[in-house]
Amino acid sequence: MLACWFGVDRSTITQAVNEVQPLLAERGGTISIGVRLRTLAKVIAHISASGKTGIIDGTEIRVRRPAAGRKDRDTFNSGKNKQNALKTMVVTDGDCRMLFCSPTQHGSCADITHARQLGLVSLLEGGPAAEILADAGYQGLGAQTGGRVVTPPHRKFKKNAPDWYEAMYECRRKARSSRRIRVEHGIAHRKNWRTLARHLGRREHVSDTVQAVAGLLSHQQTADLIPGQQV
């Protein structure tokens, strides 16, 4: 369609997209006009300085099944959703604003392993005082980061739990979920882009696509907060 509009060949548009996409991926998350956070370290520093709570979660993108005989074929299998996928970690604030989106990892990689590979533990351990909310997939990071990563407590009674414990556990679960729902909204806004609902292109380009979309979404969210600004 773009090729028809501009009167050029389709390959010309494809080449232009391939050149622009990595540039958009490097933009990072916009927190104000002209101010962007390009690395996870800067995001953690921003959360600490602003006194806000960060929220992290992993999300998966369906991709085409790798060809038979490929050595790493099984690494794309997601045990969570039983499909071929790539995984990324998203960081938002309490206002659902996108702050960071990581490069992709194979779908078989656990959320907590991905967070460690991104250096989240080393950034928080003995670092700035920041509160990061996470789900049960990140249990264990709290002890490694001095309590900066807050995860749901382990359930003490798995069978025949007293009524008072069930009521307390349910109350705490709902309170935590009402705070963490912001990151789910942020992920949902990002997946409104069709290419992230199910990626049918080359898997090698997914990281750039994911980070480019996150950067554009972050810029749009910031512009919407400022009267008179348009994306």
Short description:
Helix content is about 45%, strand content about 15%.
Q: Between the first and last Cα atoms, what is the distance in angstroms?
A: 22 Å
Structural class: alpha+beta
DSSP summary, beta strand count: 9
Task: Output the radius of gyration.
Answer: 20 Å
Number of domains: 1
Helical fraction equals 40-55%
Largest sheet: 7 strands, mixed
Bin the strand percentage: 15-25%
Work out the helix count. Answer: 9
Average residue pLDDT:
86
Residue stretches low in confidence (pLDDT < 50, at least 5 long) are none
Overall form? globular
Order of helices and strands: HHEEHEEEEEHHEHEHHH
Characterization of the model:
- The protein contains nine helices and nine strands.
- It has 231 residues and is an alpha+beta fold.
- It has one domain (2-224).
- Strands 3, 4, 5, 6, 7, 8 and 9 form a seven-stranded mixed beta sheet that branches. Strands 1-2 form a two-stranded antiparallel ribbon.
- Strand 4 and strand 5 (83-92) form a beta hairpin.
- Helix 2 crosses helix 9 (206-224).
- The protein is globular and about 70 Å long.
- The mean pLDDT is 86.
Strand-helix topology:
Elements: H1 2-6, H2 10-25, E1 29-32, E2 35-37, H3 40-50, E3 53-62, E4 77-78, E5 83-92, E6 98-101, E7 105-106, H4 111-117, H5 120-124, E8 131-133, H6 141-144, E9 149-150, H7 163-190, H8 194-197, H9 206-224
Parallel strand pairs: 3-8, 8-9
Antiparallel strand pairs: 1-2, 3-5, 4-5, 5-6, 5-7
